[in-house]
Amino acid sequence: QVLLKQKRKPNCYVKIYSSGKVYIVGCKSEADCMTAARTIARRVQKTMNKENDVVRIRNYKVCNVLATCRMPFGIKIEELAQQYPAQSQYEPELSVGLVWRSQDPKATLRIHTTGSITVTGASSESDVMRSIEMMYPIVRKFRCAMRHRTEPKRNRPPRKRAAPSSMGGPSAKRPMGAALSGSGLIGNKVYFSDEDDIYDEDDLLDDDDL
Q: Where is this region: Disordered (predicted)?
């Protein structure tokens, strides 16, 4: 069984399992994560009426730190993948970014052509900074002009409506109660008049032909 809880100060999500394990996700810093862990421990202590007992946090550790940054230039990830095939993985059919796996410090970096880098899998804030400092001189060799995700909209001239035709276009109107003098198009409807039903005697079928 698991209990989900959302905290406001600090803002995070908490998962409490019946086995006693607690997972905290969404904190902005390691200090906020420790504060949230202590708050949850005290709240569980009060809920279970264990205020006179000693409650301690055991096996506390940071499992994953996620961070993002943006370089002041674009990155040619195609050339970067060709130059470092062992450390990088680039499959444009599956993802638009290049995946770089760092061993020291242990972290995974996702690099985009816009210069955006996302770091995941680090165990501390210092490991995040070390991975960025290690990656900066490498991506600097493959820098290019900044690439924007969306291009500016082009100013298109306004469309001009076609003038109504003599047969009566979409803007043509017929007064109410006016009789039709023949077949024609009024609005989006086609009208047929009995005056157009003119047959020749040769076109009519005899009773013997039926």
A: 147-180
pLDDT of residue 184: 57
Does residue 118 form part of some domain?
yes
What pLDDT digit, counting tens, does each position of 143-195 carry?
887 765 554 555 666 666 665 555 544 544 554 444 445 555 555 555 554 44
Give all strands (DSSP E) within the chain, no chain letters.
2-7, 12-17, 22-25, 65-70, 74-75, 88-89, 98-102, 107-111, 116-122, 143-144, 184-186, 189-191
Q: Does residue 93 lie within any of the structural domains?
A: yes
Q: Which range of residues forms the domain containing residue 24?
A: 2-48
Does some domain include residue 95?
Answer: yes
Q: Measure the CA–CA gap between 74 and 114, rounded to whole angstroms.
A: 5
**Burial class of 76 by CB neighbour count within 10 A (0 to 12, 13 to 18, 19+):** middle
